[in-house]
Please model this.
Amino acid sequence: MLFLIIKRILLGFITLFIVSLITFVGTEILPGDACTTYLERQAFGEQLEACYRRLGLNVPAYERYVSWAVNAIQGDFGYSLSGEMPIKEVLGPRIKNSLVLASAAIFIGIPIALILGIVTALWRDKLPDVAISTVTIFAMTIPEFISATLLILIIAIWLEWLPGIVIVPTDVSFLELLPNIILPVIAIAMIMTAHMARMVRSSVIQVMASEYVQMAILKGVPYWKMVFKHVLPNALLPAINVVALTIAWLLGGVVVTEVVFNYPGLGRLVIESISNRDLPTVQALAIILASIYVSINLLADLMTLMLNPRLKTLQIRK
Amino acid sequence: MKINSIYKEEKKSAFQKVSEVIITMASRPSGFIGLSILVFHIILAFVSPYIAPYDFKAINPTLMLQAPSAEYWFGTDDLGRDVFTRTILGGRTALTITFFGSLIALLWGGLLGIFCGLVGGKIDDIVMRIVDAFLSIPWILAMLLIVSLLGTSTEVLIPALGFFYGKGIVRVARAATHDVIAKDFIVSARARGHSNFSIIWNEIIPNVRDAILVEGAMRWSWMLLGFSSLSFLGFGVSPPTPDWGLMISNARGLMSFAYWAVIAPIVGLSSLIIGINLTADAFAKALGIDRSTKAPV
Model:
């Protein structure tokens, strides 16, 4: 068991190592570097070389990779090119803001998704299922920027209930942030909830069709007791993994949502740093977002492992 | 006699098989709706240049932000361009780019996945590690980086999208290959001395094709979503080209008094994505691939 956990964590680190290689090589082989972008037309001769020296671009690529990686492990990502300030300081408040947004969406989304998924599965192909499933298909497939735009149009502009865009400084306190994040949270939670509800639905349906549930029905176990004691524990276990994947997949969607609402989080930083060709920041963002993805998946795997007694014994026997 | 009849039954032409699948898809209400929307959009993409009432890039300052009228069905935008014309033309680029992108994704993802599933061992381990690493980089970051450095021409967007949406197919194709690899007909093909290539082409591909195609159809809708997000962020097709993502992002700032310019492209894009999604779902069900049932190998 312990061996398995350690192996899983090691695999996560290997993945992150490859990600760092990919982003480094990727930014290296693509045409144009920080200096040519920064100096634009004056990018030749003395000035270009001075810039290379200043940014340390004159040493071979592999040496730069090693020193970058060693610093990155210690949480030091170097200096951003556009703001000329340590990336660490740029990232700090952004990560906090994005975490507020994401965790609010998750805390609202997961319970609703569970209820919707279970209801649609138990009343499969009946009216509640058809109605809820139609809504979830819409919520799931419509791009984030469309649902966010519609939310702004209807709730902020036509009904004038909430502010449409977030106009706050990056390092704002949580309480000041709260009224501003309601719409972005709804926009993100909607898509996430729809995804998860569908996963839960198919998982519950699968378990309902299994032999031991049929057996329980034949034995005369009361319906709701059977649902809560026999079906749900088994159905929700595989859903954990899928939920983790959904959350990780939505990292991309959060970027778009943050741009629509002008929200000062990681997502907008992605767009800003790419528009400015701020490659050190882009590298740092890639590693951080990949770490979030890897750790969410790792957490989900470990949770499944802990919660599933069958898996535990199976692995020990192996 | 009996063997003969079974043989005949399996020897359906490709056309027959395809039409059977389509009929099964259309027999469910959701599949029928999805297919109709998709077919409508595809036909529209072909005929829209001929039926568009105005020039999509004709700027007319005297007609700025006109409300919908008999003359301009969906009104005009901030540059006085006809929104109806731009809306019916707006899906062409997205459909073309994502269609070819999905084809590329299917090809390389499917073949690499089958290859990895077949050979296994060290090569498989290494390739899957790299695929995992690519999966953990958010698509939007990678796409934005490529597009901002290489430009937003079609020749960049199609391979870039094809590459980034293919990595998920690698896993599906590999898993599907693992399901068939231990079957007797593979073992006997090996015993007959067939090469790896012949086994992939004659034995594995016919058996994993359905699973990969369904995955490809799903990727198509995701790719469309990704592509229009790029356009929305200003990293997709470049301005005068009519594109829904771009139109929404342009009209968004003015939607407090000119909502029609933003509603029309929203309806266009949403209906296309929902259409592809419903079609992909129906396609999966028609081929018997569902989460609750295993693929009939």
In short: The radius of gyration of chain B is 23 Å. Residues 196-233 of chain B form the longest helix (38 residues).
